[in-house]
């Protein structure tokens, strides 16, 4: 809709961002002087300084009613959800509850969400949670990545890991809701996670970060040399563990190649220590390379152990399944370039990024070359390099945590410099505010990287927003990388913590407007209704079965089909509601007041919730999703007859 | 910082928004033609259409590093939190968990938050929740309002109601955290809520919306004529119920006067029915007026009943404490104008707003005039008038839900028209997208209304953002009201549901950068430490007391003072952590992996959490709030010795 082509006559920000204006922008100075210098005319009237500045950042401006050109999928770190942004407006459009408990949608409360939250848990965890309400209420969502087909996003799924409670979740992109969550056995605290890029996803690779005993049942405690960390390949279609690899060191971030042959994980703590001093003692750690074909063959041939119910191979030093390439201490980011050849291993405690050439890996696995022979460049970029993004034109953008900068550098020049040529790979640095972690470019982790936008996810905002108290937002900054010079165009505040993101062109994603009545999401509700002889779409029944009561209703704005229902104190009640409105954006809700019940009922969906009616009296239920001029009147009563005393 | 004065030479949006441009904007059309028409020059270069549009909306543009001029405090409806926005950038800066369970901060998990969430609950609710984890996990946060002194905001507190579980919460504006939550007895499902404006807050007035039996213990069930609704005055300093009034009808929205004499609530369902047909049968409902001085005198003189532990007076028809002014069916919004005289009662199902003159209320209570004599204007504005905001220059802005418009109208002209003068009070209408509920102007509910910005909180966004699936965002639109014509300058997506907001100039609010070590928030932790002989600020102790274990540590980036601690399976463990970093924006976190524990530890604060260590083995804890280049290494181990079998 607003994908207007920029013609040659159009204003170039490169022209504007020259001289003092550019210097001021790069230094992060206030804009009054810049804007004043840029002030000109619109429609015959002089621009105010603010208007001039708005025009200056105009490429990122999405006016009222105009549409964004990219979806941004943001993890939320310890908030446990996934967020959809619009890019370049940087507006947060919607939240997708995943690992968190959502007051609005009833995620963690409804029967449908609790099935998703519990069916992939390990038996020990189910038992642990049985005295804690049955579901985890928190998560630490780090890395959101879309499923790939042939090296680019295919719009089917998003995957995201939970570092806090060792899980990986999947989100269906047709409805933008989570449909599967699995707990990863043997591993502790999933950190890095990336989907297979080729031929398709396929596998979702997941790093168990922390080393723990296997099994972690208390028989081994303060014996760190008996701890292990585990790399996992998940079948992204079935959402089951395909295989695991035990490795040396703590697994950090990972990525996959564009050939479908290898996956890679950075490792820190090669010392396998348990204190800060121990973990950072060595001068070098490593990146570990996984040979997918060899591992698949071993799994097929039974060359494995079954541990915790899944196939596990031993990939520690000396294994045929892995190779360990030494990298300066505590490498962190791991990003495959769109050229399909280079993988960037960021130094974190070293000022360098090590560039690995995947075309050399077959020789490494065949022991024809040494591990460090696979490193074809190692440019020194600045202090605290963490993650690298790409523009698809041979340039890389690396966040520098300690320098609070993004460094743009040229991959080819870095390779040439590594060979001894006198060439400087660094193209430009730009200040960000402050302390960047992950970064990401539009389509940048696919072969279709388009070099338009870069987002820098900064861990501190300090003085960049009005003071909201001791807990400050973080700062997602948008940088225009389409010109020769990078230009900072937007500061976006965000709640803890925007750990990572991807930026996907809108044409890839095509969500439904309303649900399909045949959707598998409420298969169990459908089975109950069939058993009870109820038509969900015309339901207004109350079925009693001992002390179990099933209440079926439908909603059409502004009414529920039942204006009241009566139960007995102590009854185990399940309420099934079907939203029979069939127009887009007509979500209903069901809040049962003073019972802690609230849930979203999307158009054409069925949602259910179960609870014990142990509070006698008159309890109103109401629609909490504004639906109609008589929305406030959309309600009814649950009458709970007191237990005879 | 960026409060630049607009000089006379500056560009006027009125000039730009003339002719076809204005028409196109009002019709909500795409911008290409508008922008093309407005295209001009900046710094000698032609503007792209997008840049021209950016300049057009430039008054709302807050560039990278520039600061907003207003705090926006947003309720979040069924999300249960409060959000702080920056205005005019409309960026969501931070979330304040209140009625929800927060995965990131541990709100609902930490001992400090659970004290706040539970200490104001009624005994029956505590018992009900005892089998449900002890705290509510959801809320429906409707109306966020700041404390007043002398008719304007004083920056001390925010108050917000929970319709779902009948609560009112308070947020401390010095730290932007909730410090008190109380459940309101006798009432069901608090809806309208406003603070006393004069002489100060003082009272927080809260409407019990739904009619229920008192007590609601199941003795009365399907006998709606025995149901009641209750109006509550809360002491905002003590956060206790000062007094209650039983009324006729369902209480909807409320407001207070600028004289400290009266409060007002709209009521629908004068029929006191329980079905939609019954509730909307009458042609008229009413606004009920509460005489604060008479009620205070009755409470002082004991002219009351004590019900549910609080003083209750009977304010039903015929009472000396109240008067009922008839209004066309189902009035909704209730907004006192900054002129200190007029109160706007929106018609909802009637196209009118009824204007009440508070200077006539003494005569009404003295029975010198009739109720309808207090209505001094009743302009017909359009379909579905819901809420009214003000510019401080005698104009009112009313949302029209069904028409999807905001209507600007002149109060004085409406009064004159009501007297028979041939004058049209309607100044202008602007389309909003779509179906607006609440609206609010900058400082608009105070005597300092400044007429700069209007926010329209629209319940549907439909096609205004890229498609994110069946659940769409709502749409908070920003409208520039500083000129003669209203101008829509921003569409802001928001997650369910931005129910209401206020817009407060930044000078009123001055939050702390870090916590005071003497803050009462962790008084209990301080008491425990004293009893255990532990200095919280240098703590690295594990105190065992039978099967109760108290673990004390402090944090300084990138370490916790304990790299490990050992407990026995089944121990009841409390972990106290003090963040000894003393610079702004240096929050730490404590996540205990695979135990469901995660919490925020702000700079200079102490936070604690209790749990049963019923899972043996090695469990890593880590800092989840990015704090340092070695943040990932900031961690330790909890070793849980298995129970002897």
What does the secondary structure layout of this molecule look like, with pairings?
Two copies of one chain form a homodimer.
Chain A lengths: L12 H4 L2 H8 L5 H7 L2 E2 L2 E2 L2 H8 L13 E6 L6 E6 L3 E6 L14 H8 L4 H7 L11 E9 L2 E11 L4 E6 L4 E7 L6 E6 L7 E6 L20 E7 L4 E8 L2 E7 L5 E7 L7 H4 L4 E8 H10 L3 E3 L2 E5 L7 E7 L5 E3 L5 E5 L6 E5 L3 H5 L9 E3 L7 E6 L4 E6 L4 E6 H8 L7 E6 L4 E6 L11 E6 L15 E7 L6 E8 L6 E5 L17 H10 L7 E6 L2 E9 L2 E2 L3 E5 L3 E8 L8 E5 L4 E5 L4 E7 L4 E6 L12 E7 L4
Parallel strand pairs in A: 13-18, 34-37, 36-42
Antiparallel strand pairs in A: 1-2, 3-4, 3-32, 4-5, 6-7, 7-8, 8-9, 10-11, 11-12, 12-13, 14-15, 15-16, 16-19, 17-18, 20-21, 21-22, 22-23, 24-25, 25-26, 26-27, 28-29, 29-30, 30-31, 33-34, 34-35, 37-40, 38-39, 38-41, 41-42
């Amino acid at each position: 809709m607003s994908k207007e082509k920029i013609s040659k006559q159009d204003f170039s920000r490169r022209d504007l961002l020259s001289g003092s204006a550019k210097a001021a922008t790069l230094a992060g100075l206030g804009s009054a002087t810049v804007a004043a210098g840029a002030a000109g005319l619109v429609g015959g009237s002089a621009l105010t300084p603010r208007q001039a500045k708005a025009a200056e950042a105009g490429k990122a401006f999405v006016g009222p009613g105009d549409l964004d050109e990219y979806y941004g999928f943001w993890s939320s770190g310890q908030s446990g959800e996934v967020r959809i942004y619009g890019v370049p407006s940087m507006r947060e459009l919607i939240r997708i509850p995943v690992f968190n408990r959502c007051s609005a949608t009833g995620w963690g409360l409804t029967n449908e969400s609790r099935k998703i939250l519990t069916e992939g848990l390990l038996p020990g965890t189910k038992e642990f949670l049985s005295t804690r309400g049955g579901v985890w209420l928190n998560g630490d969502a780090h890395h959101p990545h879309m499923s790939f087909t042939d090296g680019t996003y295919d719009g089917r799924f998003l995957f995201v890991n939970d570092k806090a409670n060792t899980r990986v979740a999947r989100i269906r992109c047709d409805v933008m809701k989570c449909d599967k969550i699995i707990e990863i056995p043997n591993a502790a605290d999933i950190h890095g996670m990336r989907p297979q890029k080729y031929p398709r996803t396929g596998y979702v690779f997941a790093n168990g970060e922390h080393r723990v005993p296997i099994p972690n049942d208390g028989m081994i405690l303060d014996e760190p040399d008996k701890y292990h960390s585990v790399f996992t390949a998940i079948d992204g279609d079935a959402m089951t563990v395909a295989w695991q690899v035990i490795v040396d060191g703590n697994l950090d971030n990972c990525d996959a190649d564009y050939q479908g042959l290898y996956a890679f994980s950075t490792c820190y703590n090669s010392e396998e220590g348990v204190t800060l001093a121990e973990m950072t003692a060595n001068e070098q750690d490593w990146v570990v390379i996984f040979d997918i074909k060899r591992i698949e063959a071993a799994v097929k041939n039974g060359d494995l152990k079954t541990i915790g119910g899944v196939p596990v191979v031993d990939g520690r030093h000396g294994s045929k399944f892995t190779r360990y390439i030494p990298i300066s201490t505590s490498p962190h980011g791991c990003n495959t370039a769109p050229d399909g050849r280079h993988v960037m291993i960021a130094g974190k405690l070293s000022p360098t990024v090590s560039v690995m050439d995947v075309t050399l890996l077959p020789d490494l696995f065949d022991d024809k070359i040494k591990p460090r022979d696979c490193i074809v460049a190692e440019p020194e970029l600045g202090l605290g390099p963490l993650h690298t993004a790409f523009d698809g034109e041979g340039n890389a953008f690396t966040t520098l945590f300690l320098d609070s900068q993004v460094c743009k550098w040229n991959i080819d020049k870095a390779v040439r410099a590594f060979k001894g040529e006198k060439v400087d790979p660094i193209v430009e640095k730009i200040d960000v505010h402050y302390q960047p972690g992950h970064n990401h470019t539009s389509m940048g982790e696919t072969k279709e990287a388009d070099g338009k936008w870069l987002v820098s996810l900064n861990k501190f905002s300090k003085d960049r927003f009005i003071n909201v108290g001791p807990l400050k937002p973080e700062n997602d900054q948008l940088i225009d990388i389409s010109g020769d010079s990078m230009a900072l165009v937007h500061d976006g505040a965000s709640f803890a913590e925007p750990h990572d993101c991807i930026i996907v062109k809108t044409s890839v994603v095509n969500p439904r407007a309303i649900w399909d009545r045949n959707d598998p999401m409420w298969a169990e509700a459908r089975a109950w209704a069939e058993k009870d002889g109820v038509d969900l779409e015309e339901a207004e029944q109350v079925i009693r079965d001992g002390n179990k009561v099933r209440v079926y209703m439908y909603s059409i704005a502004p009414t529920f089909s039942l204006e009241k229902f009566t139960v007995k104190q102590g009854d185990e009640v399940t309420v099934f509601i079907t939203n029979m409105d069939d127009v887009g954006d007509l979500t209903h809700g069901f809040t049962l007041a003073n019972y802690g019940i609230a849930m979203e009922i999307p158009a054409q969906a069925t949602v259910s919730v179960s609870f014990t009616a142990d509070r006698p009296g008159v309890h109103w239920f109401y629609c909490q999703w504004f639906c109609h001029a008589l929305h406030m009147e959309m309600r009814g009563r649950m009458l709970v007859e007191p237990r005879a005393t």
